[in-house]
Amino acid sequence: MKKVRLLPGKLPVRLLERLLKQYTSKGADVVIGPSIGIDATVINFSGNYLIAKTDPITFVAGDIGLYAININANDIAVMGGRPRWFLANILLPEKKTTPQMVKKIFSQLSKACKDLDISLCGGHTEVTFGIDRPIIIGQMLGDVKKGTLVTAAGAKVGDDIIITKGIAIEATSIIGREKEKDLRKRFSQRFITSCKDTIKMPGLSVLKDAQCAIRFGKVHAMHDPTEGGLSTGLHELAIASKVGVLVDRDAIPILPECEQLCDYFGINPLGAIASGALLITLHPRHTKKVIEELGKQGIKASVIGKVTLQREGLRIRERGEIKKLPLFERDEITKVL
Fold first, then answer.
1. pLDDT value at 12 more than 90
2. 88: which residues sit within 8 A by CB, 6+ positions away?
3. 160 phi, psi to nearest 5 deg
4. Above 80 in pLDDT, residue 35?
5. Residue 202, preceding bond cis, omega within 30 degrees?
6. What CATH number does the domain containing 120 carry?
7. Where residue 302 sits, what CATH number does that domain have?
8. Domain that holds residue 130
9. pTM above 0.85, yes or no
10. Exposed e or buried b for every residue in 272-297, given b needs 16+ CB within 10 A?
């Protein structure tokens, strides 16, 4: 039998789904275990729920501490929780690590934690054989009151689908950092710097987005699209909730920097890593209020579609034509990096 080699990035959705069903277990205190579209575990703990999350940062070396905190905190936030404690497993490259590099990473982690009121409370650090850049594997813990838990499995037919900020924020920053030399052939340094800084403005964190949405609307589901971009995020949400979706391509906000980079490298922004955006589904009667309140917080938000019946599948309206929403098994930025 011919061996199939998997490409870098997330495992194919259907393969991962089979593995989770076959090999994971759910103890008596585990309220929510692993499944597609559910990025954190919820455990019954002392009156509240404990939310536990782990995620590695592998694409970038610069500002890796900022990435590690925000990416992990986001998966606590989308469940209605408050990220509180972070442990970092820091793997450093052989022959490239200096005390200055280690200090810089610790400083980034510390600042990002302070910005979100998170305790940096443990972990492990080592110089590791076989890697060429720093890697941080983060463990974030948070809590949520039992009556306010939200999951990606709660979307209901008829819900509006809102997205905050815009798509491919993280991809824009990663490409700006990792392909700076190539970009100088075409773009100004000012433009490149703007691309790199999208992790700070509009930013990677969706904590404020999630807290605002929950405060002012009856939110049924939330999900932060990461690897595989908005399109894969919608697929994950639909699988978790057993629904379909119909989204409008023209309604999806794309940062100008992102649009230019995607055109330049010939990649689809719908499939590019999208941390920094938050998907929200809620009853239409709450949509206007939530968008208004997000706006007061300086967070742009747009209605991009509807939750539909599962049998209708996942669809996108583009230039007046309704098509099947693509699924990106491999993130589009891997074509560039």
1. no
2. 68, 109, 120, 122, 123, 124, 125, 136, 137, 138, 139
3. -75, 150
4. yes
5. yes
6. 3.30.1330.10
7. 3.90.650.10
8. 39-148
9. yes
10. bbbbbbbbbbbeeebbeebbebbeee
